[in-house]
Structures are given as C-alpha cells and as structure tokens.
Amino acid sequence: MSVNRRDFLKIVSMSTILSIGGVASVSSLKNQVEASQISTSPAALTAKRWAMVVDMSKFKSEQDYQKCIDACHLVHNVPHITDNPKHEVKWIWTETYEHAFLGNEDVYRAEKFQHMPFLMLCNHCENPPCVRVCPTQATFKRKSDGIVMMDMHRCIGCRFCMAGCPYGARSFNYKNPRPFIDESKENPEFPTRMKGVVEKCTLCYERLAKGLQPACVEVSNGALIFGDIEDPNSAVRKVLSERFTIRRRPELGTGPSVYYII
Amino acid sequence: MYNGGKIIIGLIIFVGLVTFPFIFHGEKATAKPDPKVDTAEILKLPENERKCVESKDFMKREHMKLLNEWRDQVVRDGDTIYTNAEGKTFTMSLQNTCMKCHSNKKQFCDECHNYTAVKPYCWDCHIAPKEKQS
Hints:
Radius of gyration of chain B: 23 Å
Largest sheet of chain B: 2 strands, antiparallel
Number of strands of chain A: 11
Low-confidence stretches of chain A: none
Number of helices of chain A: 9
CATH architecture of chain A: 2-Layer Sandwich
Oligomer: heterodimer
Helix content of chain B: 40-55%
Number of strands of chain B: 2
Number of domains of chain A: 1
Order of helices and strands of chain A: HEEHEHHEHEEHEEHHEHEE
Mean pLDDT of chain B: 89
Structural class of chain B: mainly alpha
CATH class of chain A: Alpha Beta
Shape of chain A: elongated
Number of helices of chain B: 6
Order of helices and strands of chain B: HHHEEHHH
C-alpha cells in the first residue's frame, strides 16, 4: 500500500498535535511540583560560622559533664556500648589535659589540671581534614553556617575521616546500634544510625533549624557558650575578647571552632 | 518424523512444566496492594484537610523522588520547609511529618513495597512509628 502525499501530511500533522497534547498533560504534573518551593525555616538560628566556648571553670563536678553528655546522647539516639571500648560511640565526651591538648606537655602543671576532665566534641573546623578525605562527600562543610555535617545516606563506612580527624571526634558503628539504645528513652524524632557508618557531633543542626540551642549548651547552665564567631556582637565573640582561651592543636591548621577557657 | 513419539511426549512434559505455575496458582494471585490511609491521625483532621503534601496521583508515582529531594535539601542545604503548589507549608521530615499522619507503616508503606519487592533502606536508621501488634 502506498501513501499519497496528501495522506502522509495528514498523518504527520495529526501525530504532531497528539504528541504535543501528550507532553502538555505530562508536564502539567511536573508544573505542579515546580510550583512548590523549598526554603529555610524562619525560626531557624543562623550564623556565618558557629563556634563554641567551653568554660572549664564552670564544670565543678562529675555531674556537670554527665549532664551535657546525657542530653546530647539521648536526643540523638547515640548507642551506649560498653562491652568493647573500641566499639564505643560518642558525640561528646571527656578527656584528660594530655590527651586533649597534645604538645603542651608541661611537667610542672597545677595539680588540678592533672586529672581534670575536659569536655570534647567535634571542633567543626574551618578547614576540616575529614571533609577533604571523604570519597563520597558524606561528610561535608555546610556553606551556610560552617557546620561539619554527616550525610548518613552517603557514608560507605571507609573510615578515612576517622583517620583524618586529629581530634578523635568520630565513631564507627561496628555493629547495629539499635540494640544498644534504650527503647524507652529513644527520641522518636531523630533517626538512629546503622551498622557500618561513621557518626559524630552535628552541632544539633536539627535543633538549630527549629530555633533551639544545641542540647549540650541548653543544659550546661552557661558553661558552654554558643554563637556566631563572625558576628562581633555574638556571645562567643564577647567571651573571646575578654578571656584567654586555647584551642585543641591549632598548629595543625584545621581552624577548630571550639575554644576552652581553662 | 524420526522419534515422533518421544518428541511429542517430551513436548507435552515441557508444556506441562511451563504452564504448571499458572494452572495451579493462577487463581490465587497475591491480592492487589491496598495501602490504608485511615489512621487515627488522618481521621482526626477535618475532611477538607485530609490531603498529602501533593496530589494523591503525584504521591503514588513520585513519592520516592520527592523523599530523595527532601533528604538532600534538609541534610545538605539545611532547608527544612516545603511549600506546595497550594501554598501550604510542611516541615520536610520523614519521621516527623510523613509518619505522623501515616502512622501505619505496615499497612501503608509495606503494603506496596512488599508487593513490588522493593526494599527501601529508610528504616535501617529512621525510627518507624510504634504500631500496635495486630
């Protein structure tokens, strides 16, 4: 059967009209979504770069430390693993002076600093080595506020970041953390992690988005001061301009954002 | 035809084997999935507000893409608010927004996912709503 010129043109024009109609109906669904918008929460706390000051003079008893640690670990469903110290998962913890401030090995230090525990957490470095070594960008520095974030969806558990971090701020989930979380105390609003991912302090990004201070800061009674280090009027900058502070291993060039008043 | 008998018997056995599953189980095909949207939380809402973030059609087809986008926006960009085509705003969160209404994971998520044999890894980390054992 041969098609004459007239019929051929009819077929072509009809099919063109039909296909345009088809595309239009499909894209109307797409338009519906393109009409949607994504934005930051107006309640969110924002900063150019978050920083924290740990005022050691306000930590008087064991409980002052434990309060901060518990607040963090409960709100983030951090598993409590005690059977093997290598499997321990910690977002915020305590460390002795020698371990915390490596390189400051003065022999004749005041007695009280020999055994005093120091509160440690991720330093949210200005130039984070963990981010540089991560092959999947699962850990990355948030452009908006400088938080060194973890994207658990991307982490492949290679542990390069743990080798890269000079502060030991990262923990690997050697086993499924779920059985080590007390189900009666778990926070149903925050996920847990799974076996084979690295986790660490995220500076409570989920609380900041709701306009709340980080959990540890909230319960610390002013021992932890939190704010925007690039804002000269922030609480952090006020303390830094008045008190002498030290940071953990600044000579490495990582630019840690956690300051200690001794 | 050489060895005709054997070939025909062989063919009959072959056809029998191939059609065996259809003949014996064809009638008992797995029931079509029927995700339930009648949780207490949804029924509590007034009739005209019983809507998901986007249309039912869209959610049925594209919820996985929407969730992926939400995930990236929240975790990587820190944006947490979703404004849909109608101008309604939602906090982008699987655990705190989606599952607050769809508190019946077994009858909502698993119903279709099991039927189509997809195994999303959401629940390896995200805490599923506590459901009464029924």
